[in-house]
Amino acid sequence: MNDHPLSRPVSRRAFGRLAAAAAVSLGGTALAGCSSGGGKPSANTPLRVMAVNHVWSQAVAKLLPEFEERIGRRVSMTLLTSDQLANSYNVKLNASAADIDVMMVRALQEQLLFAHNDWLADLTGLVTGDAAFAWNDFLPATRERSVSARKVLSVPVVTERPALYYRKDLTSPPGTLDELMEQALRFAGRGDGFFGFVGRGQRAGAVSMWSSFLYSFGGDFTVDGRSGIATPEAIAAYEYYGRLLEQAGPPGATNMSLEQAMPIFAQGKAAFYVDADAIYTNFLDPKISTVQDKVGFAPFPAGPAGARPFNIPSWSLGVSRFSRLRDEAWQFIRWAADPEMVRRMQADGIPGARQSAWSDSATLAAFPADLAKAMRRQAEIGLGIDRPDVLQVGRARDIVGRPLVAGILGEPVAPIAREADAEFADFLVRDNRHREG
């Protein structure tokens, strides 16, 4: 879900041994055909990797000399913000440009559109035909999100779940959403600028975090292919989240994205906060946080349908269909997502997508113990999506987020949800026509 630009600083721990430990055979089935223009590029042509500026890509960039020596070709890695990356893809891939080989993509945000546009190479035979790569070792929820149009189009490298951040000096973590509401309302009564709960409230931006509330109330974005946002379960989830922020949250919550909500908890002004586990280091950084010794980490609380958090591949790797170095691009992905590489990365605090890494306690030692326990459990039970599964994700999130805003403003949710449901139902018809066209 990587909706946020915040990621932990690169560790100063030496990465020199990582690539050697992740040594792999670079054989296997080749990617079929070059898509356009000319033959194989010369040996002087670099393998071009476009990636988001994230702790994972920063770590991999330090290891590139090891990989370059392995394949006998230079690697050029460009790191951009998520918006810059999306804009670059739109420009270059619409022009069938051959100057991108490996693409770092958000499987939940743009992969379906890229699949529809035929911008990603089919990796199915490569990931399933290489026993040493162990495709079945990837967490089922993240593996499923790598498939579009019955083809494996990406390989997950970074995963993310919600975390319940709480003030352990003030309370113990609630096990249920009812308990969370009760405690948040009680703390909200303290006054003095202290809030019981803080979280995202911005219309489209809040949808991904709200998804775990929706699932835990027994709802979903769609039911049998149709809009599900006006079901009793969805309305209950809207009303719950709205009440939580209206009665226990800070003023102006409907304008709050991650960047506005996170500092409120970091500065000791809220008892509870739900957001991505990937941002946890912000609360341990004395330059940002006043709660380093007071923050606790807990799993997402259980709702009427149990605890149903998301567990998503926030970033994955794919191969551009227009690349003239497809085989080398696959070799890069195979190296970067190798089982041993993932374990070593995760042991340095970068959560990966392999079951073997999550089953190895040594890989979790870099995380606070209570956070590691919560992450591991949610990696096992989490759902692999945190937003509508559509081509036009941004528009869908805007529609789905409308009743969220109504609830936060204290307005009746049900009629707004029914209006949004009708709009979303019409959107789904149009989106599916576009997908099939």
TrEMBL record:
Residues 1-32 form the signal peptide. It comes from the Bacteria. Pfam families: SBP_bac_1. Keywords: Signal. InterPro entries: Bact_solute-bd_prot1 (IPR050490), SBP (IPR006059), TAT_signal (IPR006311). This is ABC transporter substrate-binding protein. The lineage of its organism: Bacteria, Bacillati, Actinomycetota, Actinomycetes, Streptosporangiales.
